[in-house]
Fold these 3 entries.
Entry 1:
Amino acid sequence: MKAREVKRRKMVEKYAAKKAALKKASLADAEGNIDYEALTKLQKIPRNASRIRLHNRCELTGRPKGYMRQFGISRIMFREMASAGLIPGVKKASW
């Protein structure tokens, strides 16, 4: 896994609670009042603290494309590991 991806994951976890609280506070209430102070604090949170900036990568090689969510690895590593019998319950199809 790339170091910057690890750094982003840690930052997302660090700011998740603070970000959720500020978002909730900045929403308009019944009278339509908006807390602009909460909005400015929300804007000062680092960009990398946003969950949308995370990218799924292979846990073994760090490859960003061909990622299989169910296994957490890329398609290439999946094929190699499945052929070697390293993934339980997966076997090569033959017909």
Entry 2:
Amino acid sequence: MIVLAVESSCDETAVALVEDGRRVLTDCISSQVDLHRIYGGVVPEIASRKHIEAIYGLADQALREAGLTRGQIDAVAVTYAPGLIGAVLVGVNFAKAAALSLGVPLIPVHHIRGHIAANYLAYPELEPPFLCLVVSGGHTMLVDVADYTKMKILGTTLDDAAGECFDKVARVLDMPYPGGAALDRRAQAGREGRYPLPRARAGANPLDMSFSGLKTAAINLIHNARQKGEEIVVEDLCADFSAAVSDTLVPRAMEALKGTGYKKLAVAGGVAANSRIRRDILAAAEQAGAAVYMPPLKLCGDNGAMIGAQGYYEYLAGHVADMSLNAYATKSILGEAL
């Protein structure tokens, strides 16, 4: 089954062709990073306009690169939630038109489910059940993936997402957008221990997380140093900040893994590219005797292939939509489109 997959939830326009949920035939991406960098972050209206300009050409490019015709497309999958509402609408409307004109099923895919499915592309042997640590720009959660479309949230952040904190601290340090990647590069050259930063435990659920206090502590530290004319060793601060985020994520992931009894841990989302988090996850999982599945860096960020992978399994579960499908800025990973 060949799925044409569309992703447009933020500032990456992506169209991919995926076969049977596991094989990427082509994955075409048009990035807007250079455009938004001058503003220090994504401008939603500009992102939506650029999606409109790119999406039709990307679909034709994907077919050419895969050597396929439109008639060989069996279904169209699309990110319908969550994301910047204008941006998501562009993808949804394109997918609806494509599915209608081709006479094929329309498959709605939750963006975070897509991130989890990126692991199926990188690891053909991976099958549920497993635990997944989701760390993206707007989401941080521990998900029990009982089946391809049956999931349970075991723990989540009660305030800011880890990726959001990386980006905001990087911006205060005058790093270029996207800040999380820039902060990670500086952290790799730093030494830990210079700047003590908090590790929060929040709420009654021991698997829940909180990052707002850490973010505030780091930003206050930077502002106070500047007001006093004190020099900040940026590399060391980035190293300490990265360690604090990892110290919040990794122990909870291990605790959740133990609670489920699984021996498989997947990591998903853009922040999964962070070198400190990847290193700590690998070390902790090895000690626990668990296998780790982390997609390559090109599949950590937003892409169309992950939507095609999850779309295949959503289709098998009967999760298809009609032309009334809408886009949503926020929606639980547990919710269905219909």
Entry 3:
Amino acid sequence: MATFKTSFPVRYYETDQMAVVHHSNYIRYFEIARNQMMVQIGFPLEKCERELGIQVPIVSVECHFHHPAHMGDVLTAVAEYDKVPLAKMTIKQAVYNQDGVLCADGVVVLGFINAQTFRPVGCPEVIAKLFEKYLNH
């Protein structure tokens, strides 16, 4: 399993009137972790689009809520994968508070499309090799 983590504070605008993080923000937190994962493996999404002409849209999102996060919390968003992507990339996601309490978890499935034709394509070889490198560490 390859695991990537990033931490950040809860911002005021992410909360509701009860100072609880609104549920829609967890999908954004998942994205923060996935984007950081791509940066850490050495191929950020903007490079994928610019150099390869490939976009990486979300195919599906599953999110389960376990414990509310609050204003003032420092969250850690996690992205993990356990196999090299082929046509789709499956990322296990989680968000923890500063005490290590699981706030939400889920699975995000991403695809690969040609940015000009919007037709599905397989995972570019350069990205697959980077995923494999981190999986084998």
